[in-house]
Amino acid sequence: MAQSQTLVQASLGVNSLAGKALVVVAGSVLIALGAQISVPMLPVPMTLQTLAILLVGLTAGSRLGAGAVLAYLAEGAMGLPVFAGGGAGLAWLAGPTAGFLWGFVGVAFLAGLLAERGVTRNLFATFFGAVLISALLYVPGVLWLTAATSLDMGGAVSRGMVPFLLGDSVKAAAAALIVTGAWAALKSRRA
Asked: Can you give the pTM of this predicted structure?
């Protein structure tokens, strides 16, 4: 299938290396801001990270979206307070939520693939794609939770997945509305 233009490319015309680097940094900042909007829960806090990551992938594409998440993880590993609740340091990348943190790279990449295939111009296709991609995050998240804590698989599912299903569906809907709305606004501006 041919690659479609992403929203970032269509609206900003970002093609230079410097422009792409700026998109990656801006994406990592958006993700860091999403991480700070948090409802403390143990062992996994509820944040707006997944919404931010979906938005970055759905607007910037697979490589820039995944690059933004990798930059975010590197910023946290270097000690910047970008993780949930202002957390920072290498320990976060091996702690109970590490499966989710590393899984975010795949979420952004897969969301970006949707964008590159032109799916993000359709509200329902974007929503269902975002829900599916969000659900895939639970694979590394729950598996790592069982490895890094004393929770068995049932406990990891009940504490690291079930409480987040409704919220992730709402975040997928919000991402779909924002991205398809931005495409509609861009189209009407150009008309």
From this structure: 0.95
101, with CB counted inside 10 A (0-12, 13-18, 19+), is: buried
Residues shown for the chain: 191
Measured CA angle at 40 (ends 95, 28), to 5 deg:
65
Q: Please give the distance of CA 115 from its chain centroid, rounded to a whole number.
A: 13
On the CB side of 110, CA atoms within 13 Å amount to 17
Which residues share a beta bridge with 46? 39
Q: How far apart are CA 70 and CA 73, in angstroms?
A: 5
Question: Per-residue pLDDT averaged across 79-106, rounded?
Answer: 96
- Greatest alpha-carbon pair distance for the chain in Å reads 58
Instruction: Measure the N-to-C terminal CA separation of the chain; round to a whole number of Å.
Output: 27
18-72 pLDDT tens trace: 999 999 999 999 999 999 998 887 888 889 999 999 999 999 999 999 999 999 9
CB 159 within 8 A of CB 43: yes
Phi/psi at 50 (5° precision)? -65, -35
